[in-house]
């Protein structure tokens, strides 16, 4: 299932340039790309702040899910929404590992049936803990060896959970 990139795009100063066409009548100019890349770089600090808010929201939703304080279907929708937004924004702002973790979480949530299978809430919380590690260690890009280890561990847990259903 390894659709995860693991590369450190965050360290590539031309990562935006590699995603658009340059040269020709409909191409984007280098000056426009440089300005856009600077804007993205400036916003990456805000993404780190938003990551903390989103992790706190995930912890709260998880608490409601475990404590039977919400309809499980609604809690899972909320969790999926947060994870999906983080998945989309992570790579944009140089946090590819955030994208990869949330990719796994979204795919896991999509596999869940109600009533929730045993240990499913623990698997969700492991993803949240992985995001906490990314935040605490400010792991950008693919997160290097730590990132590979986190993703490998999550994949193994999901596989083992799938076998125990």
Structure description:
The protein has one domain (27-164): HPT domain (Four Helix Bundle (Hemerythrin (Met), subunit A)), CATH 1.20.120. With 165 residues, it is mostly helical. Mean pLDDT is 87; it is low at 1-10. It has five helices and no strands. The protein has helices spanning 30-66, 72-92, 96-111, 120-137, 144-164.
Q: Give the topology string: H per helix, E per strand.
A: HHHHH
Which CATH architecture is right? Up-down Bundle
What's the pLDDT, averaged over the residues? Answer: 87
From the helix content, strand content and strand pairing, which structural class follows? mainly alpha
Computed Rg: 18 Å
Ends apart, CA distance between termini: 19 Å
CATH topology: Four Helix Bundle (Hemerythrin (Met), subunit A)
Short characterization:
The chain has helices at residues 30-66, 72-92, 96-111, 120-137, 144-164.
Could you list some keywords that capture this structure?
Four Helix Bundle (Hemerythrin (Met), subunit A), single chain, 165 residues
Give the helix/strand layout.
Blueprint: H1 30-66, H2 72-92, H3 96-111, H4 120-137, H5 144-164
Helix pairs in contact: 1-2, 1-4, 2-3, 3-4, 3-5, 4-5
